[in-house]
Amino acid sequence: MHILVTNDDGPPSPASSPYVLTLVRTLQAAGHTVSVVLPHTQRSWIGKAHIVGQAIKPTYYRPRTGTTHERPLKSGGGGKGAGRSGAMGGDGRAVNGDSITNGVVSAAQGVSTGAASTSASEDEEEWVLIDSTPASCVQIGLHHFFASRGPVALVLSGPNYGRNTTALFALSSGTLGGALEGAVCGVPAIALSYAFFDRNHDADIIAEASRLSVRVADWLVRHWGEGVGLYSVNVPLVRGVEGRKVCWTRVLQNAWTGGSCFEEVAVEGESVEDEEGEGPQEREADIRREESRGQQQHQHQQQQQQQQRAGVEASGAGPTNRGQSTHARHTHKHFKWAPRFKDVYDSVENSGPGNDGWAVKEGFTSVTALRANFMHAEGFEGELKL
C-alpha cells in the first residue's frame, strides 16, 4: 500500500519529533511504500490551516545522515531501486544506512546545508520538507510528488508528540488537520497520536506503539466504515500496549473553563528579539515539558484575573463621567501560548467511560471515526423569523 506520511512536529528530533522515523521504518518493514512530506519546523496547534500569500519552498531531508538540503538527490538514471523509500535489508538494517536497535531507528542529527546533490546511491532515502502546514504537506504530497509510485491509498498524519484526545486538543491539532486534508481530498486518512506520560523516550515502548499503530491502520483500511472520512487514533505509550484493549470511542466535548490560554509576558524594549520571542520548536518543547510535569495552572494568570475582576468591581458597571471619553485605553503587552492542561485533565476525570480521553487514561488505544466536516446541531430547520 502506498502511504503518505505527514505530521505537525516536523523532521526527526529527540526534543520535538521523536516518533516519526520509527513509524516510517515500521511501515516499511510491513511492506508498505512510504512517501514522506513534513513541515520543515514545528507546526503544532495549527489545525487544518493553509498559509496564503507565500510561495512554498521545499527542502529535502535525508534520514541516513539527518541532514537537510536545498536540492533533491538526482535519480541516477532511474536504475533499479531509484526513487524508492527505505527498503529493508535482510540483516535488520535499512539499506540506506540508518541503524535499527530494538525496532527503533535512529538517524544522525545534522545541520541544514545549502549544498545540492550531484550524485547519490540509488538507495538513498529522501523526505520532502515544506515551509508550511500539515494540511499543505498533504496537498503537495498527493499532487506534486511521488507520481511514479502510483496513487496514495492512505494519508497517515503523525505520530503526534502527545495525545489528541478531547475536543480541546483535537480542534487545534495539526495532526488532525493533516488527516482532514487527506479526507477532503478523497483519500482515506488516519490521524495518529502517541500519548506520553513522561519524557523518557523508551525505545522499546515506542517500537511497540508503532507496531500496534501499523496493525490498527491495516485493519481500519480493510474495514473502512461507511461514511467515515478519517479516524483519530490515540496510542498510549505504556509497556505492553499491544496486549491492551483497542476501543471505539467518541470525542469528549470539553471547553477552556479556567481562563485564558495565553500568558502575558513582559515587554522589555522593542527589539526584534523581544518581538519574535521563542521559535515554534522551543515553545512547543516548553509546552510539552509543562504537560509531562503536570504543571497545569499558571498562578500569575489567576492573580491577574482576580486583579482585573477587582478593578471592574471597584470602578462600577459603567462610565460615571459623561464628559470623559468612554473609549478603552490599552496597556501594551506581549502574549505567549500556554494551554491550560488542567481543563483537559479535569474534564477527563469527570467523564464516564467511552470517550477518547477516558480510553487513553485507562491505558487503552482509542479509535474514533470522524467525518471531515463541522456537523450541524439537530433540531434547527425551516425559516428563522426575526
Automatic annotation (TrEMBL):
Positions with biased composition (Basic and acidic residues): 280-293
Record field: compositional bias (Gly residues): 75-92
GO cellular component: P-body
InterPro entries: SurE-like_Pase/nucleotidase (IPR002828), SurE-like_sf (IPR036523), TTL (IPR027746)
Biased composition (Low complexity): 295-308
Residue stretches in coiled coil: none
Region (Disordered): 62-95, 267-335
Bias (Acidic residues) ranges: 267-279
Domain Survival protein SurE-like phosphatase/nucleotidase: 3-257
Family annotation (Pfam families): SurE
UniProt superkingdom: Eukaryota
GO MF annotation list: hydrolase activity
Annotated protein name in UniProt: Survival protein SurE-like phosphatase/nucleotidase domain-containing protein
Phylogenetic lineage: Eukaryota, Fungi, Dikarya, Ascomycota, Pezizomycotina
